Amino acid sequence: MLLNNQGIFRIRKTGYLSVYPLVPLITEGYFLQVRKRRIYGPVVYWQDFYQTLRAIKVLLFFLRANNNLYENVSGNKIKFTYYDIYQPMDINIKELNDSDTNILVAPPSVLLVLARAIDEGLLNLSLDKVVSVAEVLETEDAVRFKKVFSVDVIHQAYQCTEGFLGFTCEHGTIHINEDMVKIEEETIDENRFIPLVTDFTRRSQPIVRYRLNDVLVKRPTPCPCGSHFLAIDKIEGREDDVFVFKKIEGGGEVKIFPDIVRRCIIYVEGITNYQVIQNESLDIEVKLEYGRGVSRTDVQDKVREEFDKVAKRLDFVIPQIGFGIYEHTTDVKLKRVKKL
Ligand SMILES: [Zn+2]
pTM (2 decimals)? Predict the structure, then answer.
């Protein structure tokens, strides 16, 4: 078992994890990742080791099927509960109301549904921590979640098939786990880059200088937590979701990052949820959920104006913009800005 300077514990399973004597003592953290290893068996990473010995209940929302290991590590001090996101959310909400969950781990699309249930008085939760996983967490969603779930920070686990790459500190900054992985930067602009990952912990299927498809935004100033691990302001999305427009002068194309697209929406008042999709003909579809009593025409005109401003500033041909209705779903990964 090791402790690094971010407080991450690693337990190497030898086949006795469920009865491993240390497990009940370290169950003040929560489960983050299980990896199957041919030689050593699964490895469990624990984050945020609490000094107290009070019982912690954990709720897990996963996109895929349950994993027996979550149940194996349940004990007196910790309980992992798997909720199937494919079953109707009103059933999940009812079960949640009856539970005493205090750490919630879920993708933003699920957090949005739960936040709405709280707003409507259908759900009551008293949470110590909220961890966002599996989808890009947009800044405005994080602000809303903090308020609705009454927490100071929405934590994020940055993990994928290629490894457990990062986690947030108490200041909400994502730090790359540089004791486990090396990240080289393929520079896009001053702050944005695409990571090339080398994983030091793998014994089989090496990951060496593996180029991920993510666009990361570096934090320009050191994080107040004092960690020297690379600080990330935001996981902006997949490189594939960068919008492309036709340049006005001299042909060619202009690339627009999801953050800029997002700003065309969030600066307009009266929108409660949105998704922006660019199709293959480079047209844009804006799916909106409107606030009560808001004029849809006014909102749509303002969204068009915002796109016009960006197009003028960055010198690209104004795209065709169509409008649709935003629909809540947890069946597919939520992408606020998506390129087909
Ligand atoms: Zn920090």
Answer: 0.71
